[in-house]
Automatic annotation (TrEMBL):
It comes from the Eukaryota. It is a single-pass type II membrane protein. Residues 72-313 form the AB hydrolase-1 domain. This is acylglycerol lipase. Its EC number is 3.1.1.23. The chain crosses the membrane at residues 6-39. It catalyses: Hydrolyzes glycerol monoesters of long-chain fatty acids; 1-dodecanoylglycerol + H2O = dodecanoate + glycerol + H(+). InterPro entries: AB_hydrolase_1 (IPR000073), AB_hydrolase_fold (IPR029058), AB_hydrolase_sf (IPR050266). GO terms for molecular function: monoacylglycerol lipase activity. GO terms for cellular component: AMPA glutamate receptor complex; late endosome membrane; lysosomal membrane; mitochondrial membrane.
Length: 337
């Protein structure tokens, strides 16, 4: 082989080795950094831009794509201990000309965390209303989506600020009584009886506990490498004290059944999506909502757990789009009648 050609391959190989070695080092030594890079990459790839909005001395962090148009804007509220980027798997399957807004709930990620704040469900709904007014999202009624704790907040928001929204999607929402105890509720009862309530299954502090949480939340069994589990834990550990305080707040009597107490006040067209194999919040909650909200559209997803957004992102996005299209068609028919 010609010496110049050989040198070219050596140089090329050395150039490629640098980013490869950097990636391997990040994966092995700083897996949490790799996870942050992952979210940064997907936000950029999907066209989601991060912005901040201030209400007096309170800061909200959110991401958005598109601009308000003839179709309703969509505001998405994440679940307990998650953040705005959990919606990226859904955003991937939504049209780019839709105006999407994903906000960090109070105390989460880039939104202000204060020991003096009210983290009850009604308190969080008030904060989200402040955010909506900050960015003037309610110039026109918008579609509100919430999952788990965020679904509880979304339902209470729809009941307390009906003029702001045109429609509502609740994905396995919290805040409802259930005739059947889920696996998670049974675990909580056992922890209370043994006075080990600090070991909340949704607040992992080791890779093993993280793996257990993923199994609890998902019907689909994801094979997650140990280093990624470690990275997921490393990202969460600095916030675990807050998560414990928040959890005790939202399971307190003031918030435990907030959605149930407010569901009769929800007048907007409502869609409910629930994983049939949900082990965190029992699927029977869907029928509770259907019996209280007029013309409630219920979709039960087979072979799906609590993490509907992660397990069935394409299906969830399609259901939301179909629901919005149906409402648009019904509205046009009313106008023509």
């Amino acid at each position: 082989m010609d010496l110049d050609v050989l040198n070219m391959f050596v140089i090329a190989g050395g150039t490629l080795a640098i980013p490869i070695l950097a990636f391997v080092a990040s994966f092995l030594l700083w897996p949490s950094a790799l996870i942050r890079i992952y979210y940064w990459y997907w936000r950029r790839a999907l066209g989601m831009q991060v912005r901040y909005a201030n209400y007096d001395d309170y800061q909200f962090c959110y991401s958005y794509r598109g601009r308000p148009g003839y179709r309703p804007s969509i505001l998405m509220l994440h679940g307990f201990s998650a953040h705005k980027d959990m919606w990226l798997s859904i955003v991937k399957f939504l049209p780019k000309n839709l105006h999407l807004v994903c906000v960090d709930l109070p105390g989460h990620e880039g939104t202000t965390r204060s020991a003096l704040d009210d983290y009850s469900i009604s308190g969080q709904a008030k904060r989200i209303h402040q955010f909506v007014e900050c960015i003037k999202l309610n110039r026109r009624p918008f579609h509100l989506v919430g999952t788990s704790m965020g679904g509880n907040v979304a339902g209470v928001y729809a009941a307390q600020y009906p003029e702001d929204i045109c429609s509502l999607t609740l994905i396995c929402p919290a805040g409802l009584p259930s005739t059947t105890d889920s696996k998670f509720i049974k675990q909580l009862r056992e922890l209370q009886e043994s006075e080990r309530i600090d070991r909340i299954p949704l607040i992992p502090s080791t890779p093993e506990e993280m793996a257990d949480m993923l199994k609890l939340c998902s019907y689909v069994r994801f094979k997650v490498p140990q280093q990624i589990l470690q990275g997921l834990v490393d990202v969460r550990i600095p916030h675990n004290d807050f998560y414990r305080k928040l959890f005790l707040e939202i399971v307190d009597e003031k918030s435990r059944h907030s959605l149930h107490e407010n569901m009769s006040k929800i007048k907007a067209p409502t869609q409910v999506i629930w994983g049939k194999q949900d082990q965190v919040l029992d699927v029977s909650g869907a029928s509770v909502l259907a019996s209280a909200i007029p013309d409630c559209h219920v979709y039960i997803l087979e072979n799906c757990g609590h993490s509907v957004v992660v397990e069935r992102p394409r299906k969830t996005a399609n259901l939301i789009l179909e629901f919005l299209a149906l409402l648009h068609s019904m509205d046009n028919n009313k106008k023509q009648a």
